[in-house]
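Exercise 7. Given the encoded structure of a 246-residue chain, write a plausible sequence.
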């Protein structure tokens, strides 16, 4: 039986969604949503094929490739988001130097699409806290969503400097470089993300897209099929967890 045509999904950015309580440093530099959703949000490839939706930029694509700039919002409904934002604003009224409140408020604003405000709070969190790879990664994702790729690349690089083993920051940097048409550099960062996290379906997928555009079709097919295999396995695991919880 003939192999079905391979569909190529989007290059996207990861944005951390985990809230941090003051004093929690164990997850510093991590960019995954939460222990319960880390694998699904970090590795979920595109669920629908669509036209490019990148703000303020044009992406050169080849036939059969579709790209969608995307970051994962926190899993809260609008009322909960507004309530959480109010909590962080109250915390900042008491302690304006609370970098974690600035960061968490930035997350809430980013989830509401208020990117300029989110960026302002991410920057303030970095000014207060100093070195934090996670803060730089999310600031980079917000800047990328506005099409400010040069600035995004700078912050993704800083995230990696502070945490060289951050697979999601490597993935994000690869995405930004991809959109700047620096495909060989993007490929290198996708490969490194996979070395750090072999079951990273999103990185396998986006590496496949970049390899396809550079003419390495055989290897591209291998990584695309691996991304699909990982996605199916993760969906199966999620279904089993859902059954057990009922």
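Solution.
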């Amino acid at each position: 039986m003939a192999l079905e045509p391979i569909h190529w999904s989007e290059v996207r950015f990861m944005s951390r969604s985990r809230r941090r309580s003051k004093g929690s440093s164990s997850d510093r530099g991590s960019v995954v949503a939460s222990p319960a959703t880390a694998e699904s949000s970090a590795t979920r490839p595109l669920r629908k094929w669509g036209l490019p939706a990148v703000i303020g930029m044009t992406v050169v694509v080849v036939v059969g490739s579709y790209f969608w700039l995307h970051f994962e919002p926190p899993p809260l409904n609008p009322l909960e988001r507004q309530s959480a934002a109010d909590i962080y604003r109250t915390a900042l009224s008491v302690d304006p130097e609370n970098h974690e409140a600035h960061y968490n408020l930035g997350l809430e604003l980013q989830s509401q699409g208020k990117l300029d405000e989110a960026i302002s709070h991410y920057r303030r969190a970095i000014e207060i806290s100093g070195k934090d790879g996670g803060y730089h990664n999310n600031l980079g994702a917000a800047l990328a969503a506005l099409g400010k790729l040069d600035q995004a690349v700078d912050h993704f690089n800083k995230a990696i400097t502070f945490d060289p083993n951050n697979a999601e920051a490597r993935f994000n940097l690869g995405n930004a470089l991809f959109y700047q048409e620096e495909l060989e550099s993007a490929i290198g960062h996708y490969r490194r993300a996979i070395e750090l996290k072999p079951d990273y379906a999103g990185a396998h997928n986006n590496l496949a897209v970049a390899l396809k555009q550079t003419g390495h079709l055989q290897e591209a097919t291998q990584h695309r099929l691996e991304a699909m295999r990982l996605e199916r396995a993760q969906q199966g695991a999620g279904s089993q967890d859902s059954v057990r919880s009922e």
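Remark. Residues 217-245 form the longest helix (29 residues). Students should compare their own answers with the one above.
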